[in-house]
Amino acid sequence: MTTATARRSDRRISPVFVGIVAVMAVTGWATWTGFAEQPGLAVFLFVTAAWIVSLCLHEYAHARTALHSGDISIGAKGYLTLNPLKYTHALLSIVLPVLFVIMGGIGLPGGAVFIEHGRIQGRWKHSLISAAGPLTNVLFAVVCTAPFWLDVLDGVPAEFQFALAFLAMLQVTAAILNFLPVPGLDGYGVIEPWLSHKIRRQVEPFAPFGLLAVFGLLWIPEVNGVFFDAVDAMLRGLGIDEIRTYCGQNLYRFWTETDQFCSVSQ
Which GO terms describe its molecular function (predicted)? Predict the structure, then answer.
């Protein structure tokens, strides 16, 4: 009985996650209805809460896939509760990605749930576990962009469109960055099981610095330009133009001067 109760509690959705979803819902409603006196603040809270929700789902996807692949220790670690405070590195998983959104409007990959890979047999399972997280970002991006490519935005307030466009951009950037085959990122985790033992040993010392290297490269104007050109091209293919993403980021940064063009509902 005690074991059964413990197992149920391992999978019970955390009140912390429910609270974050509630903030997302209320501020999304405030953005949609124009209830908030400061739409920028409502957009900020809505996008930030939705971004944290996506980070939680990203890590949950890793954990759930690992559980079904053989790592039965996942539940006891609290990863199935969607509680961001249970992650191995809550700072890397939540705080830093949110700070990067605030500072630069980029969906920085977070990390991580600790998976006992020794319990998992088969290279395909290891690859799928790594791919599950960024695939969640892809799914989130599809959901955010669906109203645009389905052309069902008639009557939707401009501020909400802008917020949704900016959130979609964050998901696209997170998916692209996560799928890069760089040590320390999920993309490398997808291909790592297929590499020789010698190559894995040689690459292993660089894993803690992979994300820092990517971030450093993005500071190079030429690399940054190519990266965001690719992001914009994907968003345009999904029906979101640069004006909407620009206005979404402009409203999100409510503590700066708001572009008058973005403050007028269209």
Answer: metal ion binding; metallopeptidase activity
